[in-house]
Design a protein that fits this description.
By secondary structure, the chain is mainly α. The chain has one domain. The chain contains eleven helices and two strands. Strands 1-2 form a two-stranded antiparallel sheet. Helix 3 crosses helix 4, helix 3 crosses helix 6 and helix 3 runs antiparallel to helix 11. It is globular, with a radius of gyration of 18 Å.
Length: 241
């Protein structure tokens, strides 16, 4: 379990977790174990990274749409969405892994034509209403795929607002986000286990929030999204071999 201490502002930060198990830049100390995990995942999906990716996206998409409105998309829509997401991320360009030993914050970027790619992904919806529902999640998942790696968290998951509350910790906001309370590119989704990340998030919960983390942990910190992020991390390092 991750240990937690406070920073200069009295807010919780994780210590002795990824620093003891991962090198800066996200590389596991045991790189051989990382590659073995990647090969095992490929084997479970007929040796195809794309098939593995699409299966992970399908789980995230169904969960998100169900929590957002309770309505599940058809299997055909899910398959087409996942396929188009892979194609769009490939067209924009997958990010390179951080060099070993690198520590850095996020690089805020914008991509020309990204909205056209988002619209193309969402166009797989069966009608105008479904296409409108797919637009925000298509945007979030495309960003998940193309945003570059970094090691120093933005800490948006704990940013306070008025009355000792945090907007990201509001269930009505988390319900609109495929990644829950953290950002889609949060480094902790890769460097912490689900239990460690949950400990950090709960310790950071704003006192004024009416809904505690423990009431809806799957909403605030979806485990299926961690599986997708870890696939992307592995794919960036071993997908070309």
């Amino acid at each position: 379990m991750v240990s937690v201490q406070v920073d200069g502002e009295g807010l919780p930060v994780p210590v002795d977790s990824w620093r003891s198990h991962w090198k800066a830049g996200g590389m596991m100390i045991d790189a051989q174990a990382s590659e073995h995990a990647y090969r095992a995942g490929l084997a479970a999906h007929a040796g195809e990274a794309r098939r593995w990716f699409e299966s992970l996206v399908a789980v995230c998409l169904r969960r998100f749409l169900q929590q957002e409105s309770g309505a599940l998309p058809s299997a055909e829509t899910v398959a087409a969405f996942s396929r188009h997401l892979w194609n769009s991320a490939s067209a924009v360009g997958w990010p390179s892994p951080l060099a070993e030993g690198t520590t850095c914050g996020p690089e805020e970027r914008s991509w020309d034509g990204i909205e056209a790619q988002v619209s193309a992904i969402a166009a797989c919806g069966s009608d105008e209403t479904e296409r409108a529902r797919l637009l925000p999640v298509a945007r979030q998942l495309l960003k998940t795929c193309i945003y570059g790696e970094f090691t120093e968290c933005r800490n948006s998951y704990r940013s306070p607002v008025a009355e000792d509350r945090c907007r990201r910790q509001d269930p009505s906001i988390a319900r609109t986000r495929i990644s829950g309370t953290p950002c889609v590119d949060c480094p902790y989704y890769v460097t912490l286990t689900q239990g460690e990340h949950a400990t950090l998030l709960e310790a950071s919960w704003a006192r004024g929030n009416p809904v505690p983390y423990t009431r809806e942990p799957a909403l605030f910190l979806p485990e299926d999204f961690r599986e997708l992020r870890r696939f992307l991390w592995l794919q960036a390092r071993f997908g070309g071999r």
